[in-house]
Design goal:
Length: 353
């Protein structure tokens, strides 16, 4: 460490002179230091001692000219993941696992990051099991992959789960999950905004006093979006690449995003179809409902089949190509990115900032 002699503003006799003027408009004393044979190297050695760092050495990292996500495009193959999820069901009892989930963690990051802003996981509930009731600040979405005997009970309303359904779990609502089937497991894709709470320390969670929150059956619900309703809408669009956004069923919010934080949509591609190239400041997690094809994300080609899940980082150009007729589910961070006025698409936006 460089030896430093501290000096204030000195008078004629060498004593520390009183500051010129006083009151809130008077500046603090003009402290300086004298370092023998001073240099940038010595400066960089000394300033960590006062818990500071030089911005000029990190400017391009902290203020990049274009978005620099840490997450990369990556695929989680259902063929590889499902056997381990089933093993977890055999080896990890329900009383030990509050939620029996395999988190989909981006290879360049740690949990809870599937992308820089999104968390995804595959959850398993076996016949006769209950995932106990709790509530949390995080907002959650669920897309049902396997099974028809399951349910989720949200704030007193029990909703049946069927393959292809999209279900919301609003913030701070008690919810539990169960499987009333006798043979088949329930498996679904969880999507949450958990990464935000790594930046904003504002998350709360609370367990209910019993495994199940008191609930009654709800044949329809404003938080349930059945596949039986989505598929006809996709098929009704004559274009080769159809996109239908899920929109709110809340009174007075019809047509808006399903939440201020997370949004979702389904897409259909005709055999041989190729979607247009998109580059936007949202990130997304895609799940292959049906079909076979590939997505080109930046310089990476991801081949996918039914059951696979893959990530699209922010600002990576991407498009999809279908070999067979394909259906894709996607959830993303578009609502919160737009709410923060961070949303940009394409290259022609600089003059609009």
């Amino acid at each position: 460490m460089t030896a430093i002699k501290a000096n204030g503003v000195h008078g004629a006799n060498g004593d520390l002179a009183p500051p010129k003027g006083s009151g809130p408009m008077a500046p603090p004393p003009s402290f300086t230091i004298q370092v023998e044979d001073d240099s940038q190297e010595k400066l960089l050695q000394d300033i960590p001692g006062v818990h500071t760092r030089p911005l000029w050495t990190q400017m391009n990292v902290l203020v990049p000219p274009v978005p620099k996500p840490k997450a990369i495009a990556h695929k989680w193959e259902y063929e590889a993941l499902r056997p381990h999820l089933v093993r977890a069901g055999q080896l990890v009892p329900e009383e030990q696992a509050e939620r029996r989930v395999l988190m989909l963690i981006n290879p360049t990051m740690e949990s809870p990051y599937t992308t820089d802003t999104l968390y995804a996981g595959l959850q398993l509930v076996l016949p006769g099991e209950t995932a106990p009731a709790h509530r949390h600040t995080a907002f959650a979405v669920r897309f049902i992959i396997e099974g028809n005997g399951g349910f989720t009970a949200v704030q007193g309303k029990r909703i049946k789960m069927t393959r292809g359904d999209f279900i919301l779990t609003p913030t701070w609502c008690y919810h539990d999950h169960g499987n009333d089937g006798v043979a088949a497991p329930m498996i679904w894709l969880d999507g949450l905004d958990l990464p935000q709470f790594q930046h904003f320390p504002v998350h709360f969670a609370q367990h209910y006093s019993a495994p199940r929150y008191p609930a009654e059956d709800a044949p329809s619900s404003k938080i349930l979006f059945p596949w039986a309703e989505m598929e006809p809408r996709l098929e009704a669009d004559p274009v080769a690449h159809a996109v239908v956004r899920y929109t709110s069923k809340e009174k007075g919010k019809e047509g808006e995003e399903v939440s201020p934080r997370l949004g979702a949509q389904c897409e259909r591609l005709s055999p041989g179809a190729k979607s247009r190239v998109i580059r936007e400041t949202t990130s997304a997690v895609y799940h292959v409902i049906d079909g076979r094809g590939r997505s080109v994300i930046g310089d990476k080609v991801i081949d996918w089949v039914k059951g696979d899940t893959f990530s699209v980082p922010s600002w990576e150009p991407y498009h999809h190509e279908a070999d067979d007729k394909a259906f894709l589910f996607r959830f993303d961070d578009r609502p919160m990115i737009k709410a923060l006025n961070f949303y940009r698409i394409g290259e022609d936006f600089l003059n609009d900032l």
